[in-house]
Design brief:
CATH class of the largest domain: Alpha Beta
Distance between the termini: 26 Å
Strand content: 15-25%
Structural class: alpha/beta
Number of strands: 21
CATH superfamily of the largest domain: CoaB-like
Oligomer: single chain
Strand order of the largest sheet: 14-13-10-15-18-19-20-21
Bound molecules: cytidine-5'-triphosphate
Mean pLDDT: 94
Radius of gyration: 26 Å
CATH topology of the largest domain: Rossmann fold
Length: 398
């Protein structure tokens, strides 16, 4: 998402400056292009040598060095986003008042790109009326302000003032400046994970689904600007983006109700969950006791969510199913596509090595109503998800 994006990083004199090394590493992993400016005070907290070694470029500190003039105007114009982190109380005050006594401030004043700041200071400074006023002034300039965090401060005190963690700065960057717009304004429902069907208060019937494919799809849709609702059974995953609406639940019945409640307003729905086909007819209120003769359970069918949505689907809605097969894969998947009235079905075969439950990779075949077949060979679930949504975009508009 940040590949080849131009990130200008401004570092000021606050103890949190040492954490910026981590942010730089994260940005590099994302293949962003990075340039760094530091205030003279920042060099007391973190070594320009470390930073320039990491980005394999000079770190800009002075207006004039080696008989050349640092072109602050071009730096500000080069960047897609200018992040100032940590933002010290001193630089905040100067930014609010338009002061220009170092290269970072000159670049700020001439920057034409969005500016994101992550303040980091002592709690009492943070709460001072002058700081509050300066923060409001920066907001009024249209700058993006990250809120400070509570916790251990360099002064030895506990309280508000910690700079936002580097991973959250990265997240803010992605969510607010670099989402694609292919699905802007579209509402997408995704189901993910297994469902657990209770037998008694401590036991359930479940399956091995990890939810990774559904969560990867939620990310890929969100990254293309969609409004995403992710309905998930029990998984060990958290959502990647704050803006994804996650509805966590347990049973097939709960998943059915959640999907039926919101399907009408959706443009696209992708049923990726491994929904249990059966649930115990009755759920024991008390824990079942061991008996000599074993235990017989009567199972009844759960509601088929994909099929129910297929029956309600309007012409402007695009419905995608998944099919997990172990034999006669294409034939069975096509049958599901037709019987559940989906527009497209993504076939997973447990016979493919590296594909299916729990893995970080997948290989799928995509089938549509017209009999078209697209094979996506083994790749990470993230990459497969991105390709699936490109196919959905094409087919939904066809
Ligand atoms: N599905 C669903 N609700 C169910 C069962 C399945 O929405 N109660 C959806 C799955 O999310 C998937 C598709 O139906 O998108 C196919 O699921 P799969 O388990 O492969 O097929 P089933 O219809 O359950 O049939 P079978 O298990 O007999 O292969």
């Amino acid at each position: 998402m940040l590949k080849n994006k131009k990130i200008l990083l401004g570092i000021t004199g606050s103890i949190a400056a040492y954490k910026i090394i981590l942010l730089v590493r994260m940005l590099m992993k994302e293949n962003a292009e990075i340039k760094i400016i530091m205030t003279p005070a920042a060099t007391q907290f973190v070594s320009p040598l470390v930073l320039s070694t990491l980005i394999q470029d000079k770190v800009a500190i002075d207006f004039f060095s080696e008989n050349t003039w640092a072109n602050h105007v071009m730096l500000g114009r080069w960047a897609d986003v200018f992040i100032i982190a940590p933002l010290s109380v001193n630089t905040l005050s100067k930014m609010a008042n338009g002061q220009c006594d170092n290269l970072l401030l000159a670049t700020y004043l001439s920057a034409t790109c969005p500016v994101l700041v992550a303040p980091g200071m002592d709690e009492d400074m943070w709460h001072h009326a002058a700081t509050r006023k300066n923060i409001e002034t920066l907001k009024s300039y249209g700058n993006h302000i990250l809120t400070v965090q509570k916790g251990f401060l360099a002064s030895g005190l506990q309280g508000e003032g910690r700079m936002e963690e580097p991973e959250n700065i990265l997240l803010y960057l992605k969510e607010n400046f670099f989402r694609g717009n292919q699905l802007q304004g579209k509402k997408v429902l995704i189901t993910a994970g297994p469902t657990y069907e209770a037998i008694d208060p401590v036991r359930f019937i479940g399956n091995h689904s990890s939810g990774k494919m559904g969560f990867a799809l939620a990310d890929a849709f969100y990254e293309q600007g969609a409004e995403v609702t992710l309905v998930s059974g029990p998984v060990h995953l958290g959502k990647s983006y704050r803006g994804i609406q996650l509805i966590s639940l347990h049973s097939a019945n709960e998943m059915y109700n959640a999907c039926m409640d919101i399907f009408e307003e959706m443009d696209i729905a992708v049923m990726c969950a491994a929904v249990a086909d059966f649930q115990p007819e009755t759920v024991s209120k008390e824990k079942l006791k061991k008996k000599d003769q074993g235990l017989e359970l009567t199972l009844i069918q759960t509601q088929d969510i994909l099929k129910s949505l297929g029956a309600l689907k309007k012409p402007n809605q695009f419905l995608v199913g998944f099919a997990l097969e172990t034999e006669n894969e294409n034939k069975n998947a096509l049958q599901k596509l037709v019987s559940k009235n989906a527009d497209m079905i993504v076939l997973n075969s447990l016979r493919d090595k590296g594909a299916g439950f729990g893995t970080d990779t997948n290989a799928v075949t995509i089938l549509d109503k017209s009999g078209n077949e697209t094979t996506l060979p083994l790749e990470t679930k993230k990459e497969i998800a991105q390709k699936i949504i490109q196919i959905i975009i094409q087919k939904a508009h066809a």
